[in-house]
Amino acid sequence: MSIVRKLRPARLSAGTLAIATAAAFIAPPVTVAHREPAAAAALDTAIVRMGGQENLARIERVRFEMMTLWQRMTFETRPSDLISTYELHSDLRNYALVAWRNTRRFVSGPQMQEMTDIVQKDVGIRRFPPNANGTASAWAPINVAYIDERKEVFAFAPERLLLAAHTASDLRALSDTTIAGQPHARLSATIDGFPTTIFLRRNDGFLAMARYHAGQPNDFGLAPWGDMETEMWYSRWTKFPVAGSSSIAYPTQWDVRRVGHMYKRLVVLSANFDAEAPADSFAISDSLRTAFASGPSSKPMWELPMDSAKLLEPRLARLGQPGATQAAVKLGKSWLFLEGASVPQRSETDAQWLASADPGSAVAGLLVTAPNTGRGGAAWFVQKSLPVYVTAGAASAMSTTLGNWKRGRSEARVVSKPQWLRIGGDSVWVEPIDLPDYPGALVAYVPSLRWAYSGPAATPLYFDMVVARIRERGWGVDRIGSIRSLVQPIPARTASR
Question: Which of 136, 301, 432, 438 could form a disulfide with 220 if both were Cys (CB 3.0 to 4.6 A apart)?
């Protein structure tokens, strides 16, 4: 039985897979007009090691059962990476249709929850977990960031990476390098628009890693890092059957590193390279396409409406949904922004809103109290020659972020010891505080407001630790702010004088 069982266009409903006819699968040719000999030799060996070009080029549809270990990107020195969460998912791909169906199962409270994404070349939808009454949720558009993710996921699937490099007009060999004591060939090629360096082990010829620079400008969590270095490592090679008696070697562990740190680990539990895919597997209705194109899904995640921004009181401002963007505290006639926005464009929008809401006020600068934080919005403050104060725990992350946004890496002012910041004729006291999993945070105290602030104090444990610090110092504080709430009263039994 052939490995390729194509979906017949006649089976697809109108408007469902409009890209199908335009994306007919064409296997890369066996030969190309010109290939640099050194690069071609190393690449051809890697393709043979995987099972040969003919076998790899036949792969049109695949279903992976996978587990993703999401890492918490941290710039600390720890003996092991911090895991954020686990996720099981069924990943069904049709490369010919440029379509992806990803059913995700994750822990939410004591139970597993499931939701499904369908992402085509230019549109994406999601069915969220069932409603509280057990009924199925309706499909709804998802953010354009998932289209960016689909492109990256498909481009760096190992077999597609090697085949794309094989036909790349700019394929060339770079100097060899050594990784963990082993020699590696390095090849340079453009893969689906990504200028990429491919690393192949010299001892066995297998693909080891791909490195490329790319931003994720629409993704809320990744946009702050700007144009970042990304690495995809391939390991735990296993044989899988394909057409007839053939087989391919395929990596079952993919480690993704961003800005030099672990981002996630994907473990392939099983793979079917001749997966069935009913016509409706990737179906997206015309109405959902229209909703995607005309609604907020087509805009970056960080481009949130300003209707939730408000002056909570004359000297405290929330500039977006709690936890989703920055806040500010007013000292004298100047606003000190807190934690920072995802990208410079959002900082500009927030500053304009605040100027309108509080005429005659000015922007004093930015204070980042949370460790391991890279906030792209800080680049706007640097551009405006405004100070950016960061906790020592965020110094490395902010340095990397500012560099990625083409700003001076050393522009951030590191607060490594207790000190007063005098702003607008008023003062704020800032000092380091170590919190579990967040060493090197900051707590800020504004005496004139009887208010203290620490971004991580959003959780009960960290809130209690900040309260304990306030009591230890004897500060006159009635309320505490965090990234979730700017005004949270201190429990009466612990209120300081």
Answer: 301
pLDDT tens per residue across span 252-279: 999 999 999 999 999 999 999 988 887 7
Nearest-angstrom CA–CA distance, 375 and 399: 10
Q: Which two tokens stand for residue 287?
A: 């109405």
Residues with Cβ within 8 Å of residue 383, at least 6 apart in sequence: 344, 407
Nearest to 108 by CA among 92, 81, 130: 130
Q: What is the residue whose two structure tokens read 């979906």?
A: 7
User: How far apart are alpha carbons 4 and 240 in whole angstroms?
Assistant: 16
Cα–Cα distance, 415 to 437 (Å, whole number): 19
Closest Cα to residue 189, out of 310, 80, 32? 32
Do the beta carbons of residue 482 and residue 453 sit within 8 Å? yes
Backbone angles phi, psi at 223, to 5 degrees: -55, -35
Task: Identify the structural domains of the chain with CATH numbers, from first to last.
Answer: 9-298 (2.50.20), 306-494 (3.60.15.10)
436 and 450 Cβ atoms separated by less than 8 Å: no
Using CA atoms, how far apart are residues 381 and 389, in angstroms rounded to an integer? 11
Token match 């807190």: residue?
A: 338
What is the pTM (predicted TM-score) of this model?
0.85
Instruction: Tell me which amino acid residue 468 is.
Output: A
Return d(Cα 15, Cα 100) in angstroms, integer. Answer: 17
